[in-house]
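Technical annex, item 7. During the second reporting period the consortium partners agreed on a shared format for inverse folding records so that results from different sites could be compared directly. Each record opens with the tokenized structure and is followed by the designed sequence. A conforming record, contributed by the partner at site C, is shown below for reference.
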């Protein structure tokens, strides 16, 4: 089956790799001509995300390009550490932290190594049903025909709207998130741990990689501003915005932010709590296109990876796309909506085993 995959991000590349293993013929269309933007942005793949990569043998390159954390410490506004939770990592890889640009590059390289074509600079603009499949339309005017189209095109998915023109817009969570990393020396270190700091106005988290670089993020309550205004904020602007949220507090946050150069990235955080329609007979959504969570649980990428592998298994084991898409939605919807709701309430809680222990057995058959 020729599968058109819109989006060469986390879900798109992994969906393509899993589909290829499943015996299909995927081709990926990525809107951006090159990777490497969003300097400053990084993410953490949790155990369940790494498990999904392991299911298709793609965890190795990500492990090689990332570093580990083994637990979380909680620090309150006085600077006192009030709690520590170890991740249960027995037999599991996770969490693994790396820059977003590195993760995209590693996954795209691995997909290319497996013989998957990733066509860059191909922005999907539309699609229509044709006998036996779907024809996708691109901004360059060239069309592509396949048996099905996977919308792995992220938060502002075009495919979501093609499936349901009345689909809700992503919802602003009320938080602006700023990410950064710095090689500055002399900062408080958190090797092998995520130190989560609750300031009086905002939340902060940081960890130190094995080379001594500090990776940090700040989640700051903020009023919604127009997209163009957010897009125009410079790295210095994001640094100043984040710094102001922690200035004057007896915490290391402001010092870490001040010691960061231009490797800063910020933006409003959005979620997509419920997507009424996940598929048509020829189109289906995966990752943020189907469901996006606020960053509270650090699970968006991991859930996208789970989706990708489960979708490919369904398309491998069931006789036609309609039954495959129905089985996929049945396996995924409840779990991802539970995560989005928990993240929105900032109430992911201490009991996270239901998130981390998710396991995908690639060889187990989906029976519909
Ligand atoms: C700054 C930041 C930090 C985050 N940190 C974490 C974290 O620590 N842990 C975590 O699990 N999650 C994190 N998330 C969420 C996580 O990044 C997303 O959940 C994840 O990227 C979803 O993967 P995806 O493949 O669905 O979408 P994306 O990674 O967004 O990929 C979508 C791809 O589709 C392409 N595209 C878009 N439109 C089109 C089109 N019309 N045609 C063709 N291509 C198109 C885009 O260019 C992009 O490459 C973070 C998000 C942000 C913004």
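Designed sequence (site C submission):
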């Amino acid at each position: 089956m020729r599968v058109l995959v819109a989006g060469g991000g986390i879900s798109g590349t992994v969906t393509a790799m899993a589909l290829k293993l499943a015996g299909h013929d995927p081709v990926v269309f990525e809107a951006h001509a090159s990777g490497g933007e969003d300097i400053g942005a990084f993410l953490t793949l949790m155990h369940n995300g790494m498990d999904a990569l392991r299911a298709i043998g793609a965890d190795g390159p990500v492990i090689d390009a990332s570093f580990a954390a083994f637990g979380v410490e909680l620090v309150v506004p006085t600077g006192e550490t009030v709690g520590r939770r170890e991740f249960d990592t027995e037999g599991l890889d996770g969490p693994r932290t790396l820059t977003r640009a590195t993760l995209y590059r590693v996954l795209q390289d691995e997909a290319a190594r497996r013989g998957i074509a990733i066509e860059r600079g191909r922005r999907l603009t539309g699609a229509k049903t044709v006998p036996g499949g779907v024809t996708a339309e691109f901004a360059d005017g060239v069309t592509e025909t396949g048996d099905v189209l996977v919308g792995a095109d992220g938060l502002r998915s075009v495919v979501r709207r093609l499936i349901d023109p009345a689909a809700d817009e992503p919802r602003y969570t009320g938080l602006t998130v700023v990410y950064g990393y710095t090689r500055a020396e002399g900062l408080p270190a958190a090797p092998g741990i995520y130190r989560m700091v609750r300031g009086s106005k905002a939340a902060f988290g940081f960890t130190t990689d094995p080379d001594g670089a500090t990776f940090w993020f700040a989640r700051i309550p903020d009023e919604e501003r127009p997209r163009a205004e957010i897009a125009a904020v410079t790295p210095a602007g994001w640094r100043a915005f984040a710094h102001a949220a922690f200035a004057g507090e007896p915490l290391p946050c402001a010092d870490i932010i001040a010691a960061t150069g231009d490797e800063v990235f910020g933006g409003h955080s959005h979620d997509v709590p419920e997507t009424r329609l996940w598929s048509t007979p020829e189109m289906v959504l995966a990752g943020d296109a189907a469901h996006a969570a606020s960053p509270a649980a650090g699970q968006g990428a991991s859930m996208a990876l789970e989706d990708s592998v489960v979708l490919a298994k369904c398309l491998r084991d069931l006789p036609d796309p309609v039954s495959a898409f129905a089985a996929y939605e049945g396996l995924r919807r409840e779990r991802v909506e539970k995560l989005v709701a928990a993240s929105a309430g900032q109430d992911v809680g201490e009991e996270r085993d239901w998130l981390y222990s998710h396991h995908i057995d690639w060889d187990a058959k989906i029976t519909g």
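Residues 6-12, 29-32, 41, 43-44, 123-124, 152-154, 158, 179, 265, 287-289, 295, 298-302, 304 surround flavin-adenine dinucleotide (CB under 6 Å). The two ends are 19 Å apart (CA to CA). All partners now use this format for quarterly exchanges.
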